[in-house]
Every structure is written in C-alpha cells, then in structure tokens.
Design goal:
Blueprint (H helix, E strand, L loop, with lengths): L2 H11 L26 E9 L2 E6 L6 E6 L13 E6 L9 E6 L5 E4 L9 E5 L3 E7 L7 H14 L2 E7 L7 H6 L6 E4 L7 H7 L3 E5 L6 H8 L24 E4 L5 E4 L13 H6 L5 H5 L17 H7 L5 H14 L8
Parallel strand pairs: 3-5, 8-9, 8-11, 9-10, 11-13
Antiparallel strand pairs: 1-2, 1-4, 2-3, 4-5, 6-7, 12-13
C-alpha cells in the first residue's frame, strides 16, 4: 500500500466532525444566576445545624425555617443577618424556604476563643449596640473582659453599653469610677427590681447581650421577654460559672426591637484585631502613635522609653486612666498579661 493510500484510510477513520455529548461533570457552569425578584426579606433569629429560623419581613409572629441555597456556597449566615427567601415561606411545619441572598452587614460582633486562635467567629450581625453584662458580685467583675468587649464593639461598629447586675449584693461605685472618663453609657440593675432602665435602652433597637456565665444575663432576658424561657443556671464553685445558654438567639421585645442573647462565654479573644484597631478605639492616641518609633510596642518605660503615648498624656491631652486601659489591652493582645482570669 502506498503512502497516499494509507493517508486516505486515516481520513476515513477521522471522527473529528462527530458531535460527542459531554458528561454532566464537564458541562460549563453558567455565570448567570436567577434574580429571584419574588424573594421575601427576613431577619435571621436562630441558627441550628444548617437550618436558619427567620422572621419574615422582620415580623416575630411569622417565622420561617430555611436552608441555604446552593448558589450561596459556604456564605456564612448568622443571627442578625438580613436575608432574602424564596420557596415555601408559609412557615408551616415540615416546610423549608431557601436563603438566596444575604444583605451587606452594618455591624459585626466578632471574637476568637483566645488570642492564639486563628479562627474568627462571627457572633452577631447588624446589631446597633452591644450590651456588656457584668456582675458586681458572684462572680466578681472582670475589667479585662469589659475592656475587650469594648474593643470588639468599637472595631465592629456597635455602640457599647455597660450593664452592671446584682447591685443588691455589692456597690457599683468602684467600677463606675474606673470607667468614669470613658464615653460609655453605664446601667445598674438589681435582682430585686425590674430593669426599667434597661428596657428603655433596648427599646426599638437590635442589641446583642454578652457576658460571662452566671452574671445574670439570662435572668435579665427572661424579665425583658417573658416568653423567652431561657435557661438560668447557678454559678459554679470555680468562679467563672457554667454555661447556661448554648446558642445565640434573637428575641423580640414587647415594645419593639430585638435582643440577641448570646451563649455565656469564658473568654473574648482578640486574635482577629490588629494593634492598630485597638488604638483606634482611643481617638486621643491615634495621631501620637504615628510618631512612635517603628518597633514601639506602646508599653511605655522601660520597654518602650520613646513611646509618644506618654508625651500626649503628660501634656494633658489624654488621661492616665485611658492610657492604662489601652496598654492593658495591648499587653494582653501580645500575650504578655493574662488579665482576663
């Protein structure tokens, strides 16, 4: 057979012009996504194992259980998120809607388990204020925890409010004096009185409550929302209390607004917060930090003798109390001071 004949045979075997249907796994995915023009807006009020309970149109009497739509992938959805739902939004038992969109967040409360934990946990989204609940006794107050919550609030875009409980067991005067120079609203409650001042502060707002276990947070929630039925536990002998609330949940206030009861936590890590974020919570020191040496840890003498924070304080542009609070946070963030315990 000549070379030309062999080439003619190969041409007859060429199947390049034959259309082969691709398998399902090779089909290119379209970048077009449905618009879901008929989607209904809702507020996420609880999360439980891949299911989100949502208040349709923000109405607490119209709860819908939803799953995350496939096109969202692993998009995180937390309590407080404002979402769009499609599918069965009737709220009937054994029905599921789908979350197809998550709106941009106006604020985010984040924390890590400790300062060495790289995993950042989003606790609550879109809260207007952070209510830091601290007992005056049983367990005793921990100013380090309060300061860390303040930083989390400032960096996350929430307005901080300090709520001191159990004033019937101890005087709040010393703690009030320690925070007198901060631009911070402080509320004091007693176990034997109704928390009317707290009701006023929470009305018509979305507020997150955070605090150690045993400080009376769930007790307050049950007084504010009679139908909440949150678990109330006794303080353990260890001193930090045992966990009584296990999941974050948004509860509707009778007069309007929402309160997000978060789980009792033992630590409030700031691994996700940079030192500059901490300084930014103290506006009077922001410009001074820019004048510090490049390797300055802002701890002051003898570690950082040229720190400009001392210059600002000596000039009367800031107070020693504010500087001490800032340095406490910076030292803890660097792992040099376990002041939370």
């Amino acid at each position: 057979m000549t070379g030309r004949a062999r080439r003619d045979d190969w041409r007859r075997l060429d199947e390049a012009d034959v259309r082969v249907r691709p398998g399902r796994g090779t089909r290119p995915r379209s970048k077009l996504r449905p618009e879901h023009a008929d989607a209904r807006s809702a507020l996420v009020v609880e999360v439980d194992r891949g299911r989100w309970t949502c208040a349709l149109d923000g109405d607490p009497d119209r709860e819908v259980v939803a799953m995350r739509a496939r096109e969202l992938g692993r998009t995180p959805i937390v309590v407080g998120d404002r979402v769009d739902l499609v599918g069965d939004t009737s709220g009937r038992p054994d029905t599921l809607a789908r979350v197809v969109r998550v709106a941009d967040r106006s604020s985010v409360l984040r924390r890590t388990a400790d300062d060495n934990d790289p995993f950042e946990r989003v606790v609550v989204a879109n809260a207007e204020q952070l209510m830091i609940v601290c007992a005056l006794a049983d367990p005793p107050p921990r100013t380090g925890f309060i300061d860390r919550c303040l930083v989390a609030a400032f960096t996350g875009g929430l307005g901080p409010v300090l709520c001191l409980t159990k004033a019937d067991l101890a005087s709040p005067d010393e703690l009030l004096a320690g925070y007198a120079e901060l631009d911070l609203r402080i509320l004091v409650t007693r176990h034997d009185e109704e928390p009317d001042v707290l009701r006023e502060a929470l009305a018509h707002k979305v507020s997150a409550l955070v605090g150690h276990s045993g400080v009376g947070k769930s007790t307050l929630v049950n007084k504010l929302v009679p139908d909440a039925d949150r678990a109330i536990g006794a303080v353990s002998a260890v001193g930090k209390g045992r966990h009584t609330s296990t999941t974050a949940v948004a509860l509707p206030l009778p007069g309007g607004g929402w309160v997000v009861d978060t789980p009792g936590i033992r630590s409030f890590g700031l691994a996700h917060v940079r030192p500059g974020d901490i300084v930014a919570a103290f506006p009077e020191f922001v410009e001074a930090v820019e004048e510090c040496p490049s390797n300055c840890g802002h701890r002051g003498p003898p570690e950082d003798p040229d720190c400009m924070l001392d210059v600002v304080t000596a000039a009367g542009e800031a107070t020693a109390g504010r500087l001490g609070s800032l340095r406490r946070l910076l030292a803890s963030r660097a792992g040099l001071d376990e002041y939370q315990d």
